């Protein structure tokens, strides 16, 4: 489990492509504006939501297995009890990290991800941490 600023900074610095599981098309939803913030800061965003074909002008995929590009980070905006299958998919697609957003804690998901070498973060917001560590003020 990643908990130090140094490890968080390294993870974010070495991440380029982020699959956002549960990304909403609604701009007022955290999954949407967090993804847009990360996109504005140079990350490639890949929406994953089975209910949509496109979000924010980007192709949206029904599952991680359907994404046609390599994913560095799987950023999850789903209830904790829904995250273990997502952790399994993150492992299957060869992601490098699993980030469960603020308020999401799943020991089982962390165990699944870490057993296969994925860096794991829980209960932190990727936008807030990026802004804090790299000097961009949060909105």
TrEMBL record:
Positions in coiled-coil regions: none
Sequence intervals crossing the membrane: none
Signal peptide: none
Record-linked Pfam families: CoA_binding_2
Domain of life: Bacteria
InterPro entries according to UniProt: CoA-bd, NAD(P)-bd_dom_sf
Residues annotated as domain CoA-binding: 11-104
SMART domains: CoA_binding (SM00881)
PANTHER family cross-referenced by the UniProt entry: COA-BINDING DOMAIN-CONTAINING PROTEIN, CYTOPLASMIC PROTEIN-RELATED
Protein name: CoA-binding protein
Organism per entry: Pseudazoarcus pumilus
